[in-house]
Amino acid sequence: MSSVPVAIAGLGAIGRVVARRLATGIPGLRLSAVAARDRAKAQAWLDAEQIAVPLVELDTLPQHCNLAVECAPAAALDAICRPMLAAGKRVMVLSVGALLPRADLIELAASGGGQIIVPTGALLGLDAVTAAAEGNIHSVRMITRKPPNGLAGAPYLVEHDISVVGLNAAKRVFAGSARAAAQGFPANVNVVAALALAGIGPDRTEIEIWADPALTRNCHTIEVESDSARLSFSIENVPSENPKTGRITALSVVAALRKLHAPIRIGT
Description:
Blueprint: E1 4-9, H1 13-24, E2 29-35, H2 39-49, H3 61-64, E3 67-70, H4 77-86, E4 90-93, H5 96-99, H6 103-112, E5 115-117, H7 126-132, E6 137-146, H8 155-159, E7 171-177, H9 178-184, H10 190-198, E8 205-211, E9 218-226, E10 230-237, H11 247-259
Parallel strand pairs: 1-2, 1-3, 3-4, 4-5, 6-8
Antiparallel strand pairs: 6-9, 7-8, 9-10
């Protein structure tokens, strides 16, 4: 079986883990290209890791791969997805929050024969929520608690002049819909966007966000009421070198890639 060429768009904390795993070897796949904003820094890292693949521009990704893994800032989502989907190819999206206001990308995937893949990321239970959505889900509620430095600089906090510096107790900084949360915290709560897409949508999915100085991990608690099951689950993610992202996010991408050609596939 020939290997499927995979490109990585973005070579930060997540992209580097995925690049290493692909370079080491995932059956049925091969790393074929990398796109990065800072080309000199990316090339230096590739050379240090002895990974010999071309550095390319985002609009040329379809010429180098059949699947692109988006590991970039949310602002780059359109530039990564649009060329790939227009060419009828696949994109694995991590900036799920940026996908919510871009229904046109989903329409482009449908019309052009492409596909958007959203990995589980830092959240558990998406398989169960997806299954429950085949019936009737009554409500989805999520509470996210993060160390303050994992929320610092979020547009919502800046806009509303909310400080998370020097906290000595937990502080609720947001309560509202998944859609509003994804807009106000584009680098912080992609988990709730994925939860919303799996379940009852971004306007009916509710979330609270807390900055908690007592924490060293990113913590999420989810409650789902449906006609098939009541779901209650929580997860505590160890932050990566980027405090806004958990280590498990990159591993989830690797697991999703491995599933593509695995002889046995576990999960929906």
